[in-house]
Amino acid sequence: MSSAIEINGALAGLTVVDLSRLLPGPYCSMMLADLGADVIKVEEPGRGDYLRDFPPKANKEGAMYLAINRNKKSLTLNLKTEQGREILFELVRKADVLLEGYRPGVMKKLGLGYSVLEEVNPRLVYCSISGYGQDGPLEQRAGHDINYLALAGILGFTGTGEGVPSIPGIQVADVGGGAMPAVISILAALMARGKTGEGQYIDVAMLDGAVSWLNMFAGKYFVDGENPVPGSTMLNGGIPCYNVYRTKDRRYMALGALEPRFWTAFCHAVERQDLLDRQFDIGARGHEVFNQLEDIFVGKTMDEWVEFFKDIDCCCEPVNNFTEVFEHPHVKHRNLISEMDHPTEGKIRQIAFPAKLSKTPGTIRSAPPALGQHTEEVLAGLGYTNEEIKKLAQNKIT
């Protein structure tokens, strides 16, 4: 028999007030919402999250907004007004978490800094996500994912052997350096609060998170002092057994045969036992092996290679496009794509919560909200009357 928490999620009963927009903050709050938290997305009246306007649009809403704002309620609130701030204080008194992604100092100027809200609710976990953190020489500098990856050194050794940096297809610093550390830190702070009864402040910097992703390569650098460059290391194209190869139809296969048994299986499969001892060749010798593997892979189409390697355990897979990913039988089996009805956008597809919790699974319970969709509901929950709610709208507070 399922318990109430199994139905509602691991974080059922927690309230998150989310003042963030665009990608890092909303992705973080979506993870918490998928796990059952009640997320109230506080948006600027008349405009809201900028992603709502980004093309393409499903109908009225931007597709990227729809992708990361499910399971939330939308409350419009003008935080530049005294009455708007008072309403936020009321929300914070009952909340467990406040999440914001403004430039450092903005919340303090609004009168909503941690020192103020801590007085309102000492149990509050207050998380700020910013590019460079709340202090330091770059504190006020504007930035985006590409900038954090550049400064973190990640772009410097990502790319081709010619040394040209390649921009990753996803926002590694935004999600991996910002959103995910925020999720982890919020959950850790909530656990600590369970022991101490006190909330705390969390300073998440996307640059810091991106730098932390260097850990394995940094370990090597701290020993040998060598700066990695594109196509120079074991895992960025510097060795033949871990690389991408173009096929006959100008698609690509990704070979990841790092362990000797996988390389051995690969060499036997393509009948090149002469390459068995050349798995980790580098420099001119490595380039020679790479050229030979290029000649091998260009002999078949990508689909032919997929069929060829289907029963061979050698870590060789196709470089899929999105259509192939979302139609892949394994992705379907793992239930990674969900479809839901949206009142204005019709049927929309979503990528599901990525981890499988046996008793408290992540769930998609409600569609991404329209701007201000839950304003009346949230205010009524705070005790406002219908007349007061109408007056707040007339005065452009909500």
Across the major sheet, the strand order is 3-2-1-4-5-6
How much is the radius of gyration in Å?
A: 25 Å
Care to count the β-strands? 11
**CATH topology tier name of the largest domain:** Rossmann fold
The secondary-structure class comes to alpha/beta
Residues in helices, as a percent range: 25-40%
What are the segments in which pLDDT stays under 50 over at least 5 consecutive residues? 1-6
Mean pLDDT: 95
CATH H level of the largest domain: which superfamily?
Crotonobetainyl-coa:carnitine coa-transferase, domain 1
* Secondary-structure element series: HEHEHEHEHHEHHEHHEEHHHEHHEEHH
> How far is the N terminus from the C terminus?
43 Å
CATH class of the largest domain: Alpha Beta
Helices, by number, come to: 17
Per CATH, which architecture of the largest domain?
A: 3-Layer(aba) Sandwich
> Which range does the strand content fall in?
5-15%
Structure description:
It is a single chain. The chain is an alpha/beta fold. The chain folds into 2 domains: 4-213 and 344-394, 3-Layer(aba) Sandwich (Rossmann fold); 242-327, formyl-coa transferase, domain 3. It has 17 helices and 11 strands. It has helices spanning 4-8, 24-34, 63-67, 82-94, 106-109, 114-120, 145-151, 172-196, 206-212, 215-224, 260-269, 283-297, 302-309, 322-327, 329-333, 375-381, 386-394, and strands spanning 15-18, 38-43, 72-76, 97-100, 125-130, 200-205, 242-246, 252-256, 316-318, 337-342, 346-351. The strands form 3 sheets. The chain has a 6-stranded parallel β-sheet with strand order 3-2-1-4-5-6, sandwiched between helices. A 3-stranded antiparallel β-sheet has the order 7-8-9, covered by helices on one side. Helix 2 (24-34) links the parallel strand 1 (15-18) and strand 2 (38-43). Helix 2 (24-34) crosses helix 8, helix 7 (145-151) packs across helix 9 and helix 8 packs across helix 9. The longest helix is centred in the middle third of the chain and has 25 residues, at 172-196. The protein is elongated, with a radius of gyration of 25 Å. 36% of the residues are buried.
